[in-house]
Amino acid sequence: MTDKIPVTVLTGYLGAGKTTLLNRILTEDHGKRYAVIVNEFGEIGIDNDLVVGADEDVFEMNNGCVCCTVRGDLIRVVAGLMKRQRPGKPAFDAIIVETTGLADPGPVAQTFFVDEDVKAKTQLDSVTALVDAKHVMARLDDSKEAREQVAFADRIILNKTDLVTEAELVEVERRLRKLNPLAPITRAERANVPLDQVLGLGGFDLGRILDINPEFANPAHGEAGHVHDEHCGHDHHDHGHDHDHGHSHGARGHAHEDDIKGVSLSLERPMDGTKFTAWLDRLLGEQGQNILRAKGIIDVQGEDRRLVFQAVHMILEGDLQKPWGANERRWSRAVFIGRDLDEAALRAGFEACAA
Amino acid sequence: MKTHTFDAQITAAVFDNTGAIFALGDGSVRFEGGEFSAAHDGAILCAVAHPSGDGVLTGGDDGRLIWHRRDEAGVLATARGQWIDAVDASAESGLIAFSAGKTLTVIDAKDAGFRRDFQHERTVSGVAFDPKGRRIATSTYGGAALWFARIAQQKPTFLKWAGSHTAVTFSPDGAFVVTAMQDAQLHGWRLKDQKNLRMGGYPSKVRAMSFLSNGQLLATSGAQGAVLWPFVGSNGPMGREATEIGFDEGSLVALVASQPKHGLLAAGLNDGRVWLADPAGQGLNFLKAERGAPITALAMSADATRVAWADEDGQAGVATI
Known about the structure:
The complex is a heterodimer.
Chain A: E1 5-12, H1 18-27, E2 34-38, E3 51-53, E4 58-60, E5 69-71, H2 72-82, E6 94-98, H3 105-114, H4 116-121, E7 122-132, H5 136-142, H6 144-152, E8 155-159, H7 166-179, E9 185-187, E10 260-267, H8 273-287, E11 291-298, E12 305-312, E13 315-323, E14 332-339, H9 343-351
Helix pairs in contact in A: 5-6
Chain B: E1 2-5, E2 10-15, E3 20-24, E4 28-31, E5 36-38, E6 44-49, E7 56-60, E8 64-68, E9 73-78, E10 84-89, E11 95-100, E12 103-108, E13 111-119, E14 126-129, E15 135-148, E16 157-170, E17 176-181, E18 185-190, E19 195-199, E20 209-212, E21 217-220, E22 226-230, E23 243-245, E24 253-258, E25 265-269, E26 274-277, E27 285-288, E28 295-300, E29 306-311, E30 315-320
Antiparallel strand pairs in B: 1-30, 2-3, 3-4, 4-5, 6-7, 7-8, 8-9, 10-11, 11-12, 12-13, 14-15, 15-16, 16-17, 17-18, 18-19, 20-21, 21-22, 22-23, 24-25, 25-26, 26-27, 28-29, 29-30
C-alpha cells in the first residue's frame, strides 16, 4: 500500500495571484511531482500534462444530508489521476486544486471526506486562500464568496503587500483575523510565499491540531495582545512585550460587521466528555450549514489524552490524541467560524459542558 | 494460467477475437502474446474491443482515441484538451462512441469522414450502445440521455432521476437502461414507458455491471458478494429481490465480468482474489486464490472460455476455463 496523496485547495478571487503561485509550484526546481486541477483552463500559460481542467460540477448526495454537496468533477479527475500510479509509488507528491473566485470551498473539501474512492487514495491537507492586499477590502464588502473563502481557509496568503501601506495592511489583517481567527496570515509580494507554507500544512490532521494551538486568536505583530511564541519567528527573550491576553484594548474590528466571524471559546475546568460530544453533534446538526469550519482541543475529565476535533459544515472528525504533559496547562478551547453565529449562545452551550 | 507483471497500473482488460489485451496507466497497451503499443501520452482511462474484433480502442487523458492492433496503432479521433473518460463500440453497427467532458462523439469504424458530436449539460460519465448499435445511452448528472447514433440534429430522450449517475448499460434485449450511481445504488428505466427501477442496498459504489444467462441476470460489484438482479419477463427486477453469490464478509467484489449469451460469472475482489461461478450451479472456482492488491481490471472472452484480470500493482493473469 502506498501513502495517501495530500491535496491542497487554493481559493481566491480573480487577480489575487493564484495563477502566479501555481506557475511557481509547477516550474520551481523542487524535484517534486505535482498535479494541478484548474477551473480556468488556459490561464496557466504552461504546457504541462499535469495541469487538468475541471468544470465545477457541484451536486448534492442523495443521502438526505442537505449540506452534503460534493464536486463530481473532482471525483472523476482524482480517479483518473490515480491511474497514473505505479506499483508501490504514489502517482504524485501532491495534488493542488484551484477553485474559481466564485467557488464555494465547502463542496470541494467535502468531496475528500464523502467519496469512498477519493478518500481511499487522497487526504485533504489544507485550504489556502490567496487575497490581494489592495482589493480585498472591497471584495469582502461586496462578495459573499470572498468572505467565505477567507473564513474557510487553514492559511491566508496576503499577496501584493507592496501595493499598500503598512497601516492598510494592519487594517486588512485585523479584518481577516476577525473572519478567521484560526488561519495564520502570511504576507507575500508576487505570490513569493515559500511553498512549505502552502503545501503539507496538515490542516485537517487531528494529530497536528495541537501544534497550531499558540496561533489561536493571536493578534498580529505589533498589535495589542500579540503573544510571542515559537511560531512568530523571532526570539521572544529579546522583546519586552507585555504577554497579555486583554483583547479589549486597541481598535479591533473594521467599521463593517461581517456576517461571517470566528468565535473563540475556552474553559479552564475539565469538560464532561459525553455532554460535550452531545452538544457538538447537536450544534453541527442544527447549524452545520452555517458553520464553515471548527477546530478544538478539549480537556475531558478522567481522560489523560486530549480530545481533538475538526469539522467542515456537518462533517465532524474527532479523536483522542497526545496525552497532556505533567506540567502542561490543561484547558479546553475551540473556534467556530461561520455565518450568523450567536456568540453568547455558543459560549453558554460550551461552558455548560463543564464536568 | 499465464501471468504477467507490468510496471504500471492496469486500467482495463479486454478480449478481442485473438486474445487478452491490457491497457495501462502509463499509456501503453500490452497484448497477451507480448506485442506492445505505446501510443498515448498519459494514462489510458477506458478501453473496449474494436468493432471488427481486431485489437482494442483506448481513450486517454491526452484526449486521443487510439486503435491498437498487434502490428500497428493509429489515432481515430481527438478531443482537444479533454480527457476521454468512456468508450463503447458496437460490432453490430460498426460504430464507436466515446465521451470527453460534456460531449458524446460517434464515429464509424468503416467511414473515416463520419463524426457526430452531441452536447450534454453536465459531464458524461458512461457510454453504452444498445444491442443493435443504433442508439446510445449516456450517464450524466440527473439521469441518462438516449441518442440515435447516426442522426446529426436531434434532441435526446432524457431519462431523469435525481443524483449523479456514474456508469450506464443496456439490457441485451434493449428494453432497459441501467445506471450506477454515486450514492451506492443502481437506477433503471424500462424504455417503453420510462418506468423507474430502484435497485439499492449496496455497501459501496458499483463499478461494474454485466448481463449474463441470455440477459436474464444482471450481475454487479459493490457488495461482499456478486449481486444478481433478475431480468425475466417485461417487468425486469420490479418487485423482485436480488440474490448474492460468493458472499465473503471480509472482502468486497470490485469488478464483475460475463457474456450475455453465457451463464458464467467472473468476479474480482478488493483483496486480489478472482473467482468464477455458475449462478445456476454451486460453489466458487477460484482462478486466483492468493490475496494481493485490489483487482482493477477484469474481462471474459466472447465465447466465455477465458478470463483476464489485473490488479493495482501491475500483476495480470489470463486463465482458460
